[in-house]
Amino acid sequence: MAKPKYSKPAITVSDQAKLLLKRGLNKSSEKNIETKLNTVSYYRLSGYMIPYLDRKSNIFYPETKWKYIWNDYCLDKNLRSLLFDAIVELEITLRTRMIYSMSLAHGSRWYEDSSLFYKNILLQNDLKEIKSHWNRSKEVFVLHYNNNYDTSFLPPAWMIFETTTFGTLSKYFENLDATLVARNQIVDFFGFNKSSAKVLISWFRHLNVVRNICAHHSRLFSKTFVVCPIISKSKFNKRLSILPAQDKVYATICIIQTLLKETCSNFDFTGKLQKILKSANKRDFQLMGIPKNWKHQKLFS
């Protein structure tokens, strides 16, 4: 059966506000709704309406107010901003450790050496990506290298890795031969050991997904993740075995806090998180998978 053509027409902001009120928003100002809809589109905000809507009738549950939806939107925006900043710190740290450890041990162009990697086919794909990122970069140091050096040779790792993405960076790290001393120095720097490196790899993979959600301003706080981090049951990460759900953003929060404690202890992640969560209600905490006693857990104390 052929799918129907989408045919709903565009409507004015005023009509959008009237539609929301018609669907049962309680004690909400049409003017206030219009003001917000003039800066944030109805469709973007519709995702934040879902927890308050009866999906069968498409009517808001009794006592639902516009301010609840808007507060959730602002909560999510502030949470994304915090998580993005924290992940950037961790990304830069991983980038730095890979450049130093691997370059000192295996030379400036180690990222081309197939003997250092687990799967050559993955290396070739990653190498293609890193070259593409370098070639489209307009950074001053890229232009300087291209104007002054033989470009038949790729630039050193400390240059080319500064132009690639967190996704490519984490794939390079994941593919490194597990027997390399330099690779395990990186693992150790993040507070892990050789036997728990797979957990760290899964964390970076997950953080890259979250980073991209934050960078594209997509809804985060109520998301159920498909790419879930591994939570180790070993003594090393025993404090994380209490996580109620690995597919909720609380798992991400715990991972970030754990890694920041090891690498960027001056980043006041917990303090900033507490300020943001002051505006969260009981339903928000449930959507994020955050337990009531989260502030008293050892990880955040």
Share of residues in strands: under 5%
Helix content: 55-70%
Structural class: mainly alpha
Sketch the topology as an H/E string, one letter per element: HHHEEHHHHHHHHHH
Query: Which sequence of strands runs across the widest sheet?
Result: 1-2
Q: Tell me the span between the first and last alpha carbons.
A: 57 Å
Whole-number mean pLDDT = 93
The low-confidence parts are none
Query: How large, in whole angstroms, is the Cα Rg?
Result: 23 Å
Strand element count: 2
Overall shape: it is: globular
**Quaternary:** single chain
Largest sheet: 2 strands, antiparallel
Structure description:
The chain is an all-alpha fold and 301 residues long. 55% of the residues lie in helices and 1% in strands. It contains 13 helices and two strands, in the order αααββαααααααααα. It has helices at residues 13-22, 30-37, 42-49, 66-106, 120-136, 140-148, 157-160, 166-175, 181-189, 197-215, 249-263, 269-277, 282-288, and strands spanning 53-54, 59-60. The chain has a two-stranded antiparallel sheet with strand order 1-2. Strand 1 (53-54) and strand 2 (59-60) form a beta hairpin. Helix 4 (66-106) packs across helix 10. It is globular. The model has no long low-confidence stretch (mean pLDDT 93).
